[in-house]
Amino acid sequence: MSNTRNTQESQDSRESQNSQNSRKSTDKTAEDRPSPMEVLRQARGQLAELTGMDAESVSSFEQTEEGWALEVEVLELERVPDTMSLMASYQVELDSQGQLTGYRRVRRYERGRSDARRPGGR
Prior knowledge:
It is a single chain. The chain has helices spanning 2-32, 36-51, and strands spanning 55-63, 67-77, 86-95, 100-110. It is an alpha+beta fold. This is Gas vesicle protein. Residues 1-49, 103-122 are annotated as: Disordered.
């Protein structure tokens, strides 16, 4: 009987330890995930490195199932006066660790122009 009790206690101890290790692993995964500000910085830096253009602003930012999705505004062509400079919006996708997985230009516009997208096509 004593042998059976020791076996059961040993098994319970292993299960408890496995449960604790599992929780630590989950906690570590959450800790390894970058903060939103770190993701923004990484996205801007990686996009600049790939395109050669500095990000001026981030106009949208959201967490997705795969990681993160951003829309980043960049200066594509500087003109005088500044209001005539050519800007572009890039859709940027990052994985859950903040590494850029893809980007594409979705819009080009002059800095001084407002969005022409209105309901009814006006």
